[in-house]
Design brief:
By secondary structure, this protein is an alpha/beta fold. It has two domains: about 260 residues, Rossmann fold (3-Layer(aba) Sandwich), CATH 3.40.50; about 130 residues, no CATH class. Helix content is about 45%, strand content about 15%. It has 21 helices and twelve strands. The strands form three sheets. Strands 1-11-12-8-7-2-3-6 form an eight-stranded mixed sheet, with helices on both faces. The protein has a two-stranded antiparallel sheet with strand order 4-5. A hairpin with a 2-residue loop joins strand 9 and strand 10. The relative contact order is 0.14. It binds S-adenosylmethionine.
């Protein structure tokens, strides 16, 4: 270790020592509960797996454990709406902000299911194939962008376009939504692509000119087979004997109270949270994107074009999302202008000051800059991504603290990350920001380490697994 590196590790160690007593291994919060996997019995999450989601079990656990009665619940990164619908089931009035049309569409479909006309849906599904076979031209079609071009075989593409055209003419809007959702849920299955975090992987059978090692995704279902399976699953799950067990909302109704409406806000939480009044929320349960280069706009490119987004819209979405890819440019000028436009320049300055005053943050930024100069990072925009990730999260956390009532809670799920061998303690740095803005750090629950990742095994590679945590903050 050079002298420089010795100094470098210090600020993070100091912060670790300061917050060490807040870290607690949470054996009751296993990975399944924190991931989307525990949602497999829930309607809609069974049909479309939003792998970036967490489970309703997790949301309900925290709401039940830390609040006496329902109130107003927020998720600033709502995704497919796990927090909102789980909270609704428990009688909460819920509000979610989500930037990606994919999550918005899933939430809208779930809303449509609340009072879907099952007979109408059944009969539309029954007549679907006959009606589709009668269509020979279509007026609605998918407009591909460069990263999705040739994702489907010609036959599948034609059927998809006919299907979209057909759906646009279904007069019952809820039935229309559910049908469009069914095809939306099988896009990956019927395509030559596989979701892979930073980009789509392409099967060797596609028309694309692919370089590198050939990838075979296995069986690619025909449109008809995949859609039939999906529609059967949906219709069967919605049938009256199933729905009672699947849709707890119905039992909530039975329990005597009418659920509150779920408030879905499409946009960026960076500009939406400032619109809420001070002390508005009782609880927040959320999970922001992780600082891990995961690109939602590439992973969900097929779904985005299916929903009608063009090249510019996808590019703008990528830039407007919380910085977590190497392509994100900094938003500080936007934030400065934004806070100026709402007459809150001093807020902007205060948040920047908290960010700049974090010694651990300053250390992380300078270590990454140094590693970048030495060409020890896989990509030379990693340092910029990390810097901006935290800067944007600093604004989000400021706003969450402002709009949470005194005594209210915030639960946040997030993973630490490592670049160039340097661990970045996301849990500690974000908690330090939170403390500066008026939250008390009650606990940082650390998930038990995964199998095959014992410190001994990891040690043989000179690495230990980074912490995956659930933070529990309470407004003073
Ligand atoms: C980890 S996922 C949350 C998943 C959610 N907990 C669920 O169970 O479905 C993070 C979400 O944040 C969204 N997101 C990213 N940047 C955003 C922004 N600036 N404003 C609002 N949402 C954003 C992403 O589209 C993604 O859906």
């Amino acid at each position: 270790m050079t002298n420089n590196e010795e100094i470098i590790a210090t600020e993070r160690q100091i912060l670790f020592s300061k917050l060490a007593d807040k870290l607690e291994t949470a054996y009751n919060l296993n990975r399944k509960v924190v991931s989307f996997q525990a949602n497999k019995d829930e309607p809609i999450y069974r049909w479309f797996k939003y792998k970036e989601g967490f489970s309703s079990t997790l949301v309900k656990y925290f709401l039940n454990e830390y609040s006496k009665k329902p109130g107003k619940l927020l998720d600033p990164f709502a995704g497919a709406g796990t927090t909102l619908f789980a909270g609704q089931e428990l009688g909460w009035e819920t509000f979610g902000v989500e930037i990606l049309p994919v999550g918005i569409f899933v939430m809208e479909t779930r809303e449509a299911l609340n009072d879907i006309n099952l007979e109408e849906l059944r009969s539309t599904v029954k007549n679907l194939w006959k009606n589709l076979s009668e269509i020979d031209s279509y007026d609605t079609h998918i407009n591909h962008i460069s990263i999705t071009k040739d994702a489907f075989s010609d036959e599948t593409e034609i059927l998809l376009n006919k299907f979209l055209s057909y759906c646009s003419k279904i007069s019952d809007k809820k039935t229309q939504t559910v049908l469009r959702f069914a095809a939306f849920s099988v896009l990956e299955e019927i395509s030559f692509t596989r979701k892979d975090g930073q980009y789509l992987r392409w099967d060797h059978r596609s028309k694309r000119n692919l370089s590198g090692k050939a990838f075979d995704k296995g069986k690619i279902l025909s449109f008809e087979e995949a859609l039939k399976n999906k529609l059967n699953q949906i219709v069967s799950d919605l049938s009256p004997n199933q729905i009672m067990s699947l849709f707890e909302q119905f039992s909530t109704r039975k329990n005597g109270f009418k659920p509150h409406k779920v408030n879905i806000i499409e946009g960026s939480c960076l500009s939406e949270l400032p619109k809420f009044d001070d002390d508005f929320f009782d609880f927040t349960v959320t999970s922001p994107p992780y600082c891990n280069r995961y690109d939602y706009t590439r992973t969900y490119a097929l779904e985005l074009v299916y929903l009608g987004n063009n090249t510019d819209q996808v590019r703008n979405l990528r830039q407007a999302m919380l910085s977590c890819t190497v392509e994100n440019k900094e938003k500080v000028e936007f934030l400065k202008q934004f806070y100026f436009s709402i007459g809150k320049t001093e807020t902007f300055e205060k948040v920047i000051e908290v960010y700049n005053n974090s010694d651990a943050m300053t250390e992380v930024n300078s270590v990454l800059d140094e590693l970048n100069k030495l060409e020890k990072l896989n990509n030379n925009n990693i340092a910029r991504m990390v810097k901006n990730y935290f800067l944007e999260m600093c604004f989000v956390i400021y706003e969450m603290a402002r709009i949470t009532k005194s005594g209210g809670y915030c639960v946040m799920v997030n993973d630490n990350v490592r670049y160039g061998g340097e661990e970045i303690p996301v849990d500690l740095i974000l908690s330090e920001f939170a403390e500066n803005f008026g939250f008390n750090i009650n606990k940082i629950f650390v998930l038990p380490r995964g199998k095959g990742n014992s410190s001994q095994q990891m040690g043989s590679y000179g690495r230990t697994e980074v912490r995956k945590c659930v933070y529990l903050w309470q407004k003073n």
